[in-house]
Specification:
The protein is mainly α. 76% of the residues lie in helices and 0% in strands.
Length: 95
């Protein structure tokens, strides 16, 4: 569990979950883009990247992080936010 000091990280993880929900409910990729998810995802992913070490130290945190990032990449490609998978590569989350 993340403590109160990690509110930005917790908020960023919640934002990734919200993106997944919005992307799954969207009828078109324009619906997702209109909500500004490209920019929001980049900001959230930068925070997650900064806190990745902490997440990996949690029980099953590393695997959960991998699964979440993989899901974000898949959904981003599906809703035509093609710059997000490339952006994720630049963060070197799993190197």
């Amino acid at each position: 569990e993340l403590d109160k000091e990690n509110k930005p990280l917790t908020d960023a993880l919640e934002m990734l979950v919200q993106f997944a929900e919005d992307a799954k409910q969207a009828k078109t990729s324009s619906d997702v883009k209109a909500k500004g998810w490209g920019r929001k995802l980049k900001n959230a992913l930068e925070v997650v990247s900064a806190g990745a070490k902490q997440l990996k130290e949690l029980k099953d945190g590393g695997e959960a992080l991998k699964a979440m990032i993989h899901g974000v990449k898949e959904l981003a490609s599906h809703v035509q936010l093609h710059n997000i998978p490339d952006f994720i590569k630049t963060l070197h989350l799993f190197s």
